[in-house]
Amino acid sequence: MILDQLHKVNDIKKLDESQLEQLRDEIRSFLIESISVTGGHLSSNLGVVELTMALHLCFDLTKDKIVWDVGHQSYTHKLLTGRQDGFETLRQYGGMSGFPKTEEDPADCFNTGHSSTSISAGLGLAAAREISGEDYHVISVIGDGALTGGLAFEAMNNASFLKSNFIIVLNDNHMSISENVGGLNRYLSNFRTGDVYRDLKDGVEHSLNRIPVVGERLIKQIRNAKSGIKQLFVPGMFFEEMGIIYLGPVDGSNLKEMQRVFADAKRVPGPVLVHVITKKGEGYEPAERHPARFHGTEPFDIATGIPLKKQNKAHYTDVFSTVMKKMGEQEPRLVAVTAAMEDGTGLKRFHNLYPDRFFDVGIAEEHAVTFSAGLAKAGLKPVVAVYSTFLQRAYDEILHDVCVQKLPVVFAVDRAGLVGKDGATHQGIFDLSYLTSIPELTVMAPKNKWELSDMLKYAIAAKEPVAIRYPRGDACDLWKENRAPIVKGKAELLARGSRVALFAIGSMVETAWQVRGLLAEQGIDVTVVNARFAAPLDLDCLRELAETHELLVTMEENVKSGGMGEHVAAALADTGKAGALLRVAIPDSFVEHGSVEQLKQVLGLDAQSVAELILDKVRKA
Is 613 within 8 Å of 604 (Cβ atoms)? Predict the structure, then answer.
């Protein structure tokens, strides 16, 4: 195999044209076979095989720097830098990351995980190069979906100051995670499908080619002088108006054409954008037909593309989807807002049933929140569905535009807590900290699927901002009979004991129940309380627990700093009823990739670890 000959950066440059064609096919086969076993991001990586090969052929990554936006499309890049063996442990605990990691290889020059960041980071690297007088190329690769993010526009607006070469590669595959939306998508579509331009360009090239000797030279001179014939006929383009030279569009499956354009781009004394058209899932029919399904996939059967693990239980996202559908029937003012996450957040059914009340704003979380504030101000009831890790980007908008005005916006915070294999950039372990820091925001977390349903109905009826955080994966189905009404700021007693009180929230309620069983075996009587609310806290319940138990234990799937436990400690200290308090939470650190079960054990959040911690505390008391 040609792939086996690639051990380090620049080894690809030793291959001839026929070997490059074989390598392209080998890479696609390897990715399909490998990811079918480990899971991972497939469709995006299949789409950029030739693009990545062209970048490695045209640049010297011992010194040149590629910044991958989001970074989940960097698998081919990892293969071309000699990390083939690492794919056996892709996204597993202690194994290779599914994103660029500077700790893994020097060719990963910048860690990325969220979208729309690569132009800003690349511009910083290029500016530093100018100041230090060093000599290397900087290439920022960004998808057309990520280009809807405001940070990308801020960077492009700022890029014109640069006097030296800086290359932006626009990987245009018509998709982010969900299908792209908005004016920018329509603008790029005109480039993709502009038959008038293409016919004119082809006609001019054909006419010039008929002129002996001179014709071919003229075509080459026009390309070099004006970055392609397109510049002669489409003046004042969007990117050019921002001071960025535009080259393209280029066929992302044509290796030679991309090498030619990258060679042109390297000579531009300033920022230049190369527009490359790729196809998500290319070379694997199931991924071509369903690119969103193979964006981030679990292990699957190659022949059919069907996941190997069947989903037996409803996921929290499924519960959210069902309740939104039903509430849409009952509440005509209900609207749904998401940021390029229609499928991932479970809003597809709502969209299909109520298309006029569904808004996908693209990868633009800040805009999603302030847009929703405007909807609420005008009398509608917006539900913003977004992953916890991405909602971090909209902290100011939640605070300033929603909560200062006490607007009744509902935040459905999916993927809260540990999400596992996507690693540090995607763990939703900070939302309790940043959300409970905001006045006027009610913050809730359900113990099971029925409570998520009740909380969502409560939030939609509320006349104030409410956030509900819930985890990825299977929804807990314990305590079906326990369905006490949701009352603001009131916790729920699940079991009454005497010595130790467990005050748990969200996913940790099920863990607390398991801990109760383990401690009962040691003769320790345990109270279990479902906190329900992280803000406001049930202070009456907490005071009573602190007064009547030897030890009060708070349990949350969030970092310690700013989390529920810290708020409980402060509240009890203020009342003088502190007592003995143990806070079980994630250490204040960034959590790397691995399965959720493994990570809980490592972090001490599994039932056995918590029980042992409590036993040690009780014995020392």
Answer: yes
